[in-house]
TrEMBL record:
KW DNA-binding (keyword) present: no
This protein's record includes keyword Cell cycle: no
Molecular function GO labels: ATP binding
Pfam families: AAA
Key words of the record: ATP-binding, Nucleotide-binding
Source organism (scientific name): Vitreoscilla massiliensis
Start and end residues of each AAA+ ATPase domain: 120-252
Protein name: ATP-binding protein
Amino acid sequence: MVYEKEFIHIARLLSQRKYDDAALISKKILSKIIKERSEFASEAKSIINLMNEAYLLRAKNFEEAPVPVDLDSRLELLRKELKPSINENIIWPQNVQNELNSTINEREKSLELIENGLSPTKSLLFTGLPGVGKTMAAKWLAHKLNRPLLTLDLSAVMSSYLGRTGNNIRVVLDYARNFPCVLLLDEFDAIAKRRDDSGEIGELKRLVTVLLQEIDSWPTDGLLISATNHPELLDPAVWRRFDRVIDFPCPNQLEIIQLITKLLDKELSSENEKLIDLLAICYDGKSFSEVTRLINILRKNALINKCNIQDLIAKEIEQTISGLSREERIFVTYKLIDMGYSERKACEITGVVRGTFRNQKK
């Protein structure tokens, strides 16, 4: 059996320093040889075993290898989670969930992609306000890919000594690329600022160039994720280097309702649907993490004070609405009517005089 095409492909991958991709193709050829060339089967099996052992050794070395530290402060530059835990109640907007699912699906089809000259997603850029689920998405991907998670500790990396910050970043990147893992560079804008920013020194400008090169050459058995709350600060060249850019918006009302329903699954029944709808309106504009925090406060108060959580929710709704301005209460009234409440009931909840509401409506 002739393997010229595969050998050429392997050689091309090696010339591009894509060693993991070359190993994946090699394993496929060796598996074919085992099935079709019995005289070479034993040797082919032996090579596959050696490749598997090498991969396991890398994973073992990763578990045992100490994370790099800053030479002056001796603080660890990374946080290591061998088996990241995830929040089962997390909900993302559908477009975000689709992008995350596609990243996982590409990994499952890695061999097929590589054989056709393509690579699975190896770099992601997350953008969005604090609390919308960027960090949790990185944990979720690491969990689904069965990869350890490394998170850059920006407070330890940033140094007042000239040249130290750049060296710390390089050490972190060199450490992470040697192991099959997920690397999260949170607050990415702090190290990948626009190079035309006159306020930045030359060191950080050179660092951006290094980061761009690293993103381009990141190994396919790992995943590099950068996250930022301030995408406008990023250097323009950064954007096109990432395989996927995912924007995490604040949840809409339906997504808030879904999250509250999940969080209160054991405390509330389907009969309390209207109560959840009202609470979702009160939490409009808040992030997923903020809604989760507020709901958990209600749950803890109900447990500690041994009272009915429905009463606490009703009080929360009443206090929130009473604190709104007249225009905001009128807006909430409209929302309630759109949800199916009668005009009378909606005005009763918000405290808007029906006559005033009608005049505003006109």
